[in-house]
Amino acid sequence: MTWIDLGDPLPRPIPERYDPLEWEVGEICPLPSFLGTLDRPFSEVLDARVSHREFGFVDDHQLGALLWLACRTRGVGASDLGFDLEHRASPSAGAIHPIHIVVKRPGDDRWWLYEPRAHQLVELRQATGKLAGLHELSLQVLKGDEATRILFLAEPAKTLGKYQDGCSLVWRDAGALLAVMALTATAQGLNFCPLGITGEPWASALADQGKLAGVGLALLGSAAGA
């Protein structure tokens, strides 16, 4: 067995400031907010959670509700890291939230970045070509023609500015977010399936070397026959 030791994360005595990535974006797509309630009891959601491999089309209201409940920013706080700390549904080391959600919807070649403060999608320019190989690989793993593909895209320097040996924290953040989204999808009656691939080497090509890293991919869809 090969085990990669990522070290033991510890807060730096003096944080290293980091200027977050500035994205090259195009069209903006506002998403509907979710202001209702999910009637399914949480114990039932936990029992029902399972990875599905059949996907119907997800509309703006379903996608918007998922991102609103699982991913939106609910509060911000000042920090000395060069960016605000955030409160979201998913736990994150140091309230840093270095994981970005990028989606590709069926019938649309573009990839869209979710902005959790504004609750909107913004088109990532040049992502169509740079992520073409990732799209093809994901189809080989699980076809899902009508599925919405969700890329978990890390900006590691946000976490590494506060923590020495903080790479494992980035991976744990990705796993926590994946779990929250999977449970939220189950509560909505949607199908959700994580894939084993990370998104590399294509995901990191969206920015200068070392600024981004793919840390997971998942498929989302409506329940078969719904």
Account of the 3D structure:
It is a single chain. The chain is of the alpha+beta class and 226 residues long. It has one domain: NADH Oxidase (3-Layer(aba) Sandwich). The chain is built from six helices and eleven strands. The protein has helices at 42-48, 60-70, 127-130, 132-141, 156-160, 167-188; strands at 10-11, 25-30, 75-77, 85-87, 99-104, 112-115, 120-124, 148-154, 163-164, 190-195, 213-222. It has a seven-stranded antiparallel β-sheet with strand order 2-7-6-5-8-11-10, covered by helices on one side. Strands 1-9 form a two-stranded antiparallel sheet. A hairpin with a 4-residue loop joins strand 6 and strand 7. Helix 1 packs across helix 6 (167-188) and helix 2 (60-70) crosses helix 6. The chain is globular and about 50 Å long. It starts with 9 loop residues before the first strand and ends with a strand. The mean pLDDT is 96.
